[in-house]
Amino acid sequence: MLSSSIRRPAALTPVTCCAVVALGLLTGCVEPEPDSQEPPAETATEEAAPQTYEGTEGAEPDDEDGEGDTAEETESIGPLDEEQMMELLLAPGELPESAEGHSTYSGLGYFEEYIAVERSEYQDAFGQSECAQDMDRVNLELVGEDPQTGVMHEYRLPTASGASGVDASAEVYVWMLSYPEGTGVESNGIWENIAEHCAASPLEAEGDQIEIEAFTLDSTEWPMSGISRQIEMEDPEDGDLQVIEGYSVTADFGSNLLMMTAVAVDAETFTEIAEAQAEKLAQYED
Q: Region Disordered: start and end of each range (predicted)?
């Protein structure tokens, strides 16, 4: 999807994009062709200055029965349009720290062409394991069969707190897709399969490995679940170990799916960003 901002040794080239977009999981392990003259989405914008969307004021967190209330509330939320998504997703001015860059893609064009695609990078690099197959299919499964519309924000942060010994820029992707009334994607099952197939044994090849484990954010105002990724690469020139952290979580939101993914961001930073997004979900008023 977006150009890689992490320079990796040649040994990890097959999974470069997936690592960066966080597997996005993220936000797609596909990059637009560099010579393309057209934007990859129905609309694409670059914003130099932060722009803030006002959220609902005065909402208080639920009490001890909050989990049950959240489950009931989410069932009643119908498919959102792009304007509602823009108001609901984290805006640049709402990030815990200022972003150095921000891109927005709206409509289904970008998702269909660059995210809902079954890849082979993981299988090419690490073999035909169930874990590698799951990772190559995860974007396709998260987008689902019948999305109606969507919005995605891509943020480039000033620090690379999750990277060690590697030239990296921290990147965070936040997107939402809507589905026909009463339908959606059961994302928890997708993550559970990946965790089951990947947690027991990391993906390894020629000194490089990716450890994938279940990751949940139960402390947020809106529960999120997904996976964490620790990417370890051995520099072929000096043998130094290079480590990059990545996180991907989703939140079911009625007939909509929220996705957050990050690379070169540590757990503390990602949790802080996810908590800010969860607060906006909890304050949403239909």
A: 30-81
